[in-house]
From TrEMBL:
GO MF terms held by the record: calcium ion binding; NADH dehydrogenase activity
Intracellular or extracellular location(s): Mitochondrion inner membrane
Protein name as catalogued: EF-hand domain-containing protein
EF-hand domain ranges (all copies): 250-285, 291-326
Source species, domain of life: Eukaryota
One GO cellular component term noted in the UniProt record for this chain: mitochondrial inner membrane
InterPro entries: EF-hand-dom_pair, EF_Hand_1_Ca_BS, EF_hand_dom, FAD/NAD-bd_sf, FAD/NAD-binding_dom, NDH-2, NDH2-like_C
Entry's family note: Belongs to the NADH dehydrogenase family.
Membrane topology: Peripheral membrane protein
Record-linked Pfam families: EF-hand_7 (PF13499), NDH2_C (PF22366), Pyr_redox_2 (PF07992)
Keyword set, alphabetical order: Calcium, FAD, Flavoprotein, NAD, Oxidoreductase, Transit peptide
Length: 445
């Protein structure tokens, strides 16, 4: 019965009937070409004239989202339908969390590969982690880090800390570690599989964008301001979020603008009243500086080296530079990307709704729009989670939670709830059930 219904649906759905009468924009079939490589420039799509709804949509501002990660999903889910003509360019999506890789590899060997190659797994397979820091999960609480290390020891996963990889050969990994005399010593581990997981680097596209823009000096990401606008790009036209970007932390680069705005009597110095005004302006430009600017009077007195009850340019430069060095950049995590995406989606929706009002007040995309409709982005840390092989750990700031199956299912609940749609939740649940009943898919190994 079900099979017959499927065939009946297909018979009435997929047909060539009336295909000649479907309107198609000429530019969609024969796009203009341009750029250094004379590539097609997409200005119209085949579906733009498909019906009245699509025709109206193609007249809306065109929003191009490059990438399909948590930031992109956050933007798409927050945008009001119909406000923009949206195009998403992404070869694949990245809306999954990566478990702690050594634990996942251990589970793979013990739960699945063991069934096929029991002798080899027991005698010939070992897993070793080389960590440059003193502990693993070093951004979590000490209790969580110790719990993870004890679990590695229990599972037989080798852990080498305070070591740096010097070379990787086809048959071994060479690393250095300080010996008892404090001098670096070279060690070698035989291997036939190496998983390199040492942080993030610029995506080639991101690196290309960064190289073409002025004022982009960060080596690992595109630098953006507190409104997530790309520095050096036309104001209000290009934004960057997620691990492709990093919010600027340098305050001293704004020194001259801040002095010009806060120096009321134009004497070239900043008295305490002007310093209080400057602090408020700094907090608006770089919200992550707030916790370092709470002691306003104490900072003023500390850097007033000549005790003249004012700060000259040199004193201000030293003060702002040292505060900038204390600001920690946001981590390149899914939580940060998702919050940035939702923030940007809400802001763009406000811009779309208030476009006529903004234009009447002389505000265009070039300046002032972001400040008029939204405050700067502020990150709210909701805690960190990590899966460590049939167990999980939660770091919620003041509270930590770690354990076996109970923690693992709690982690899976959060993982499941954060999926981007009902479809991905259903697929994830099916994957878990298939894994539990039949094990992992080893066909690609």
């Amino acid at each position: 019965m079900l099979t017959g219904a499927i065939f009946l649906h297909d018979a009435f759905t997929y047909t060539d009937k009336h295909i000649d009468g479907v309107p198609v924009a000429p530019l969609a079939l024969h796009p203009e070409r341009g750029g250094p490589k004379n590539l097609p420039v997409v200005k119209s799509y085949l579906s733009d004239l498909e019906d009245s709804e699509q025709s109206e949509l193609c007249e809306k501002p065109h929003l191009v989202i490059v990438g399909g990660g948590w930031g992109a999903i956050g933007v798409i889910n927050t945008l009001k339908t119909g406000d923009y003509h949206v195009t998403v360019v992404s070869p694949e999506t990245y809306t999954t969390f990566t478990p702690l890789l050594p634990s996942e590899m251990y589970d793979l060997c013990q739960e699945d590969i063991m069934n096929y190659y029991p002798k080899m797994c027991r005698q010939d397979v070992s897993i070793t982690v080389i960590q440059s820091r003193e502990h693993i999960l070093n951004t979590y609480s000490e209790a969580i880090s110790q719990y993870a290390e004890k679990k590695f020891m229990h599972d037989g996963v080798g852990l080498i800390t305070n070591a740096r990889v010097a070379a990787v050969t086809p048959t071994s990994v060479i690393y250095t570690k300080k010996g008892a005399d404090g001098k670096p010593e070279s060690h070698e581990i035989p291997t036939n599989f190496v998983l390199w997981s040492t942080g993030i680097a610029m995506n080639p596209f991101v690196a290309r964008v960064s190289s073409l823009l002025p004022n982009q000096v960060h080596r690992k990401a595109i630098e953006v301001d507190a409104h997530l606008r790309v520095k050096g790009a036309p104001m209000g036209e290009v934004y960057a979020i997620g691990d492709a970007s990093t919010i600027e932390t340098s305050i001293v680069s704004h020194l001259l603008d801040l002095v010009d705005e806060s120096d009321k009597n134009k004497d070239g110095k900043i008295d305490f009243e002007e310093w209080e005004d400057m602090v408020q302006k700094i907090k608006k430009r770089i919200p992550m500086s707030e916790e370092h600017l709470s002691r306003v009077r104490e900072l003023f007195d500390l850097y007033d080296s000549d005790a003249d009850n004012s700060l000259n340019l040199n004193e201000l430069a030293v003060l702002l530079q040292e505060i900038g060095h204390k600001i920690t950049a946001l981590p390149a995590t899914a939580q940060v990307a998702a919050q940035q995406g939702k923030y940007l989606g809400r802001k763009l929706s406000k811009v779309a709704r208030q476009r006529s009002v903004l234009a009447a007040n002389g505000l265009t995309t070039e300046a002032g729009v972001d400040e008029a409709v939204s405050s700067p982005f502020r990150y709210l840390h909701l805690g960190s989670l990590a899966y460590i092989g049939n167990a999980a750990v939660f770091d919620l700031g003041k509270y930590s939670f770690m354990g076996g199956l109970a923690a693992m299912y709690a982690w899976r609940s959060v993982y499941w709830s954060e999926q981007v749609s009902s479809r991905t939740r259903a697929l994830l649940m099916i994957d878990w059930i298939v894994r539990g009943v039949w094990g992992r898919d080893l066909s690609r190994l």
